[in-house]
Specification:
Number of domains: 1
Structural class: alpha/beta
Radius of gyration: 21 Å
Largest sheet: 6 strands, mixed
Number of strands: 8
Order of helices and strands: HEHHEEHEHEEEEH
Length: 275
């Protein structure tokens, strides 16, 4: 299991050197107010999902990787699924926060998600029930891997664990680097963009076996001059995250269809019945 810590935490700041640099890049600002992005995504590498796996597999199969290959799906169907949203440690927006520290934190307040979306997922074929992990089922950390989440899911008697995270970035014009601080009062000829990527992994509660992945991205564009206050910027963030999560639910439905087809095999009938 990967033990890497969060590599990217979006830092909150006031009108500082970062804001000044952004002001120069955007062609001038009015005033000195700024909006700090709430925080980064969780490092899904600690959940057993890492881009490095492919490279490692090509080079050699080490002991840690062999242990992952040896994992077998243990969930029964219809499956009970526990759900958790994870973000970078210290994540906090204007309307919600997170708890726990370490490699990630857990967000229990549904800020952009809708009950109807989870209800839709709970009605998928071979899903017994689907519910969020309660804060009372977890310690405050430090969280190191998916183990802490799987322990909480086991307490819920859930066969599977669905973990997802939202990665939201702010851009001005076509600047390649995402902005952690958005300065208000931008020039009216500047184009502002918010982009959110929602990522999810579905794993076995008992041993962390990964059944499937899903990912979706959405963007929201408008003139920077429309971002006249923090409320306007945060509304753009929420709008984009809501759209990205809605798309993620659609991708999860596709992933689940594949999972059921592969793992929910019907029980073979006794060939000797009636003979």
């Amino acid at each position: 299991m990967s033990r890497s810590v969060i590599s990217k935490i979006v830092r909150s700041t006031r009108c500082s050197v970062a804001a000044a640099a952004l002001a120069l890049a955007c062609g001038g600002v009015v005033g000195c107010a700024s909006y700090a992005a709430p925080g980064g995504p969780a490092d899904m590498g600690v959940m057993g999902v890492s881009p490095k796996l492919a490279a490692d597999r090509a080079e050699q199969t080490g002991a840690t990787m062999q242990e992952r290959f040896d994992r077998k799906p243990l969930a029964k169907f219809p499956a009970s699924i526990a759900v958790a949203r994870v973000q970078a440690s210290g994540y906090r927006s204007r309307t919600t926060g997170s708890f726990g520290s370490g490699a990630y934190s857990v967000v229990t307040t549904r800020e952009v998600e809708k009950d109807a979306q989870f209800e839709r997922l709970s009605k998928l074929d071979q899903v017994a029930n689907l519910g969020p992990i309660n804060r009372l089922l977890m310690t405050s950390g430090p969280f190191k891997s998916d183990q802490e989440l799987r322990d909480a899911a086991a307490t819920m008697q859930a066969d599977m664990l669905l973990i997802y995270t939202l990665d939201t970035n702010f851009y001005v014009r076509d600047m390649a680097k995402p902005l952690s601080v958005v300065t208000l009062g931008l020039s009216p000829n500047q184009q502002a963009r918010v982009t959110t990527t929602a990522s999810a992994v579905l794993m076995d509660t008992r041993n962390g076996y990964v059944y499937g992945l899903a990912e979706a991205t959405d963007s929201y564009n408008r003139l920077a001059s429309a971002w006249t206050n923090e409320d306007a910027i945060d509304a753009a963030r929420i709008k984009t995250e809501q759209a990205a999560f809605e798309k993620l639910c659609g991708e999860l439905e596709k992933t689940w269809t594949q999972v059921v087809a592969r793992y929910a095999k019907p029980v073979a009938m006794n060939a000797n019945v009636g003979g």
